[in-house]
Amino acid sequence: MEQISIIDAKDYVGQTVKIGAWVANKRSSGKISFLQLRDGTAYFQAVVVKSEVPEEVFQLAKELTQETSIWVVGEIREDTRSKFGYELGVKEIEVVGESHDYPITPKEHGVDFLMDHRHLWLRSSQQHALMLIRNEVIRATYEFLNAQGFVKMDPPILTGSAPEGTTDLFETNYFDQTAYLSQSGQLYLEAAAMAFSKVFSFGPTFRAEKSKTRRHLIEFWMIELEMAFMHQEDSLEIQEQYVAYLVQSVLDNCDYALDVLGRDKEILKKYTKLPYPRISYDDAVELLIKNGFDDITWGDDFGSPHETFIANSYDQPVFILNYPKAIKPFYMKPHPTRDDVVICADLIAPEGYGEIIGGSERATDYDYLVEQIRAAGQDEKDYEWYLDLSRYGAVPHAGFGLGLERTITFIAGIDHVREAIPFPRLLNRIYP
């Protein structure tokens, strides 16, 4: 008898197998007990028929409690009534670990209760599906970037300076000096790109931003890319190819998870069509004003309602190009014909999911960078190593960062970014 995982049931139809699983739910109908089982790979139904098993097995099945772990032996059968397509005809059951008074029952629970029990909530079918999609996005990221010739680099998490200012950074003591938890590995990746041409990083970033919106986390994961000898247009093409690749990979490999979440796959297929539309910041402001947004003027950053309207005007992810210099970080390359904007772009997801990528062409002129660092209120001495990049063989280069959790939220079609990470850190939450 072979021990298998539920997800592989399709390969064992008609065979007797052994599975280690947890009882997610159960119901009885007279002489039949139905067990909803999960084993970390998928969920399916096990059927215990009183006339087909010893009395003690049927009685045990009736007494099983939610989240009790078991070994179960039975025959894999096709089940055309379920989305999964297969079930188990039970022959034997052995209890491994009992579970009593499991706190998350099939009834409705409040968000705070579920977040307090996040370590258990991860076992539920929707949370399980989300983590499978998260895993696929990460897997597909490595696949895409490796195929494109990118080299992975690991920038430090503890830094002595802040590329986008220190107002929303976590400060810590680093022996006899001040350090910050990283908000971005970008500057370090720029240095690495001068050595390896095309590089990327994947790791946690931290923002001490006192925001409670459905798009914000205090700790989140970023995929950041830097590319030497590339201009912004080259970068935009990589960005849209990357996002389309992630969406297609989830469609190809997470069919079961998307079904669990009820995500409309036809909508997702639209997001694989390239190129994505582009609109300038100037035109975006004009579009908003024409459509009754009287709370926006040129020079303002866009809020959630603004981004949602712009993206939904195109029904696809859309690039907003060339924001005002005053609202962007010092390292972005100035526009060649305008002093008031920089060469940058945000990729805005449709359906109200907002910005999932921010990127730009990077400034390379030494004097300009020093001027911008000073204008940002930073000490240029903290950036001497970064300024070396403009002293020694500077080349055109561009890069961007993709927020993993926002991208998962967008692809999965869920309401809040907190469900796209195993253990979210929010403004008022650091437990569990």
UniProtKB/TrEMBL annotation:
It is an enzyme of class 6 (ligase). It is found in: Cytoplasm. Its main location: cytoplasm. Keywords: Aminoacyl-tRNA synthetase, ATP-binding, Cytoplasm, Ligase, Nucleotide-binding, Protein biosynthesis. PROSITE patterns: AA_TRNA_LIGASE_II. Residues 133-432 form the Aminoacyl-transfer RNA synthetases class-II family profile domain. It catalyses: tRNA(Asn) + L-asparagine + ATP = L-asparaginyl-tRNA(Asn) + AMP + diphosphate + H(+). One of its GO terms (molecular function) is asparagine-tRNA ligase activity. InterPro entries: Aa-tRNA-synt_II, aa-tRNA-synth_II, Asn-tRNA-ligase, NA-bd_OB_tRNA. It holds the Pfam family tRNA-synt_2. Its EC number is 6.1.1.22. Homodimer. Belongs to the class-II aminoacyl-tRNA synthetase family. This is Asparagine--tRNA ligase.
